[in-house]
């Protein structure tokens, strides 16, 4: 008989979406995970994260178009987000009404960096169009 944790891992494995499936979700607008008003747990525990420090460099892996990035950047933190979906990043800039420029990422073929044109709290947002498998 399989241990409960074994079933849990298998259940997780079954739920893992491929990069192509994520890209399809973005292109179909199937982004119910997106929280228009930010993540309540991040808001609740912000003090623990920041711990009185200013000018933090905050990394958002799998960022989508999370509004929390702008929220933290507006506080003066430096934000870097990474997502496989270029559309997600472009929607982020459009939703936030922020201008950006695009640059290739040296050493990562096909990847692009989308960077805020005007500095707002030193924010920087990136999109890799090739994902690394781990
Ligand atoms: C559940 S969504 C969460 C998005 C965001 N953190 C939020 O809370 O709204 C997962 C995100 O991870 C991205 N993603 C999935 N696999 C990825 C990969 N291998 N590399 C980079 N981004 C990936 C998807 O495009 C999607 O935007």
Task: Characterise this structure.
By secondary structure, this protein is an alpha/beta fold. It has one domain (about 5-125): 3-Layer(aba) Sandwich (Rossmann fold). Helices cover about 35% and strands about 20% of the residues. It has helices spanning about 5-15, 20-30, 40-45, 45-50, 70-75, 85-95, and strands at about 55-60, 80-85, 100-105, 110-115, 125. A five-stranded mixed beta sheet has the order 1-2-5-4-3, covered by helices on one side. Strand 1 (about 55-60), helix 5 (about 70-75) and strand 2 (about 80-85) form a beta-alpha-beta unit. The longest helix has 12 residues, at about 5-15. The two termini are about 30 Å apart. S-adenosylmethionine binds near residues 62 and 63. Pfam families: TPMT. It comes from Bambusicola thoracicus. One of its GO terms (molecular function) is thiopurine S-methyltransferase activity. Keywords: Methyltransferase, S-adenosyl-L-methionine, Transferase. This is Thiopurine S-methyltransferase.
| CATH architectural label | 3-Layer(aba) Sandwich
CATH superfamily grouping: Vaccinia Virus protein VP39
- Overall shape: it is globular
Could you report the average pLDDT, rounded to the nearest whole number? 86
Give the helix tally. Answer: 6
> What proportion of the residues form beta strands (DSSP E)?
15-25%
Which CATH first-tier class would you pick? Alpha Beta
Main beta sheet: 5 strands, mixed
Total tally of structural domains = 1
Heterogens: S-adenosylmethionine
Distance between the termini: 29 Å
CA radius of gyration: 17 Å
What is the number of beta strands? 5
Strand order across the biggest sheet? Answer: 1-2-5-4-3
Name the helicity range. 25-40%
Keywords: Methyltransferase, S-adenosyl-L-methionine, Transferase
GO molecular function: thiopurine S-methyltransferase activity
Pfam families: TPMT
Protein name: Thiopurine S-methyltransferase
């Amino acid at each position: 008989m399989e241990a409960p944790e074994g079933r849990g891992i298998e259940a997780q494995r079954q739920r893992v979406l491929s990069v192509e499936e994520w890209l399809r979700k973005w292109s179909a607008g199937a982004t119910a995970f997106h929280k228009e008003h930010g993540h309540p747990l991040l808001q609740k525990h912000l003090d623990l994260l920041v711990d009185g420090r200013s000018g933090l460099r905050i990394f958002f892996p799998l960022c989508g178009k999370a509004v929390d990035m702008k929220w933290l950047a507006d506080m003066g933190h430096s934000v870097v987000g990474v997502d496989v979906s270029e559309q997600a990043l472009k929607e982020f800039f459009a939703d936030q009404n922020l201008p950006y420029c695009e640059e290739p990422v040296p050493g990562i073929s096909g990847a692009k960096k989308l960077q805020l044109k005007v500095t707002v709290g030193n924010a920087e947002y990136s999109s890799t169009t090739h994902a690394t498998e781990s």
